[in-house]
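Thread title: Can someone regenerate the structure for this chain?

I was given the following input by a collaborator and told the matching structure tokens would be attached. They weren't. Posting the sequence so someone can regenerate them.
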Amino acid sequence: MITSFRIENFRGIKKLELNNLGQINVIAGKNNAGKSSIIEAFSIGIAGVNSENDPLQEVLTKVLTWRGWFGKNSVTSLFYQDYLATKIKFVENNTPFSVEIRKQGNIVDILGGELKIDDDTIRRIGLGKFIILPGIVKAGPLKKTYSVLVNVGFPKEGDLLTVFSTSDDMYLVEMPVRFLTPFDIISPGFIERAHSWAFKEKGTERAFSIIKKGYPEFQNLSPLPENITPVMYVDIKWTKKAIPYYVMGDGFKALTAMALVVSSLKNGYLLIDSAEAFHHPKSLRVMSKTLVRGAKENNVQVFLTTHSLELIDMLIKYGLESKVEGRVIYMKRENGNVKASIETFEESQELRETLGLDLRG
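Best answer:
Regenerated them for you:
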């Protein structure tokens, strides 16, 4: 479990340190307080030292596109000050880890003969697009880099903007991570992948039971071949034919995605941005119980952002009932600086009951 986390020079965060983290960590605060930035920094940090299926490329792509892709500015916006390196440091089970994001200017300086990209590949990328080039992972001390090329027509100075790497004295470790955003709920192909994750872990039966608690009419979920690519279909009571997942309501899709992801993850990390998105009260209650139960039974540490006071209250209630160590992290911005205070679930419940304090900041 990650017990402390430090961020420097990332997005709107100049410097921030979080200590005494819990198994379930609810990040709350007003708009533009830095909540999503923390989730993104966590995802990059964990993926950057991860040996589990090499997830950094997927996480980096999501961080660059989740807020909307707008060329080089999407990459530059990762830095609080773009001439300084971003540093992400955290402690997991008493072991320190660090990841750096360094802006670079010349493609030759970074590739160094280890990474090759030919003119035909560059032309296929096209202007206004980006490609992530994986580096070489060597045994022993970690040598792992990811390069981001944007607006490429030809490899010239300025095309290669960032490199992701970890300290030379750190080692790759197995830290399974899932980073979930509202975009995943509607993104083509995501639910099929989530289903395969759960199937491999023999978690589909559990996921289906979770879905039925929110939607009793649900019966089954299955990817079916359609134009070569599998497409998810939903079997609902009283319907003559299965229904494509992508035409179902957003609330159903949100709970289904959450159920599959939670049922597929063990001994890892679940990161959720805008966790309340698309949920009605009953679905929100099912999701809250699912997160608490999944964290406890599968040894998963959860970090999520939310604007929902109802969700915060539910997670505190179910967390305390299940004796899961939880934290509410209050984010705020003062004079341009991001600050955070951390309260345990017990302390947060007392603030709600005695003072009626709005825990969203």
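The CA atoms of residues 173 and 230 lie 32 Å apart.
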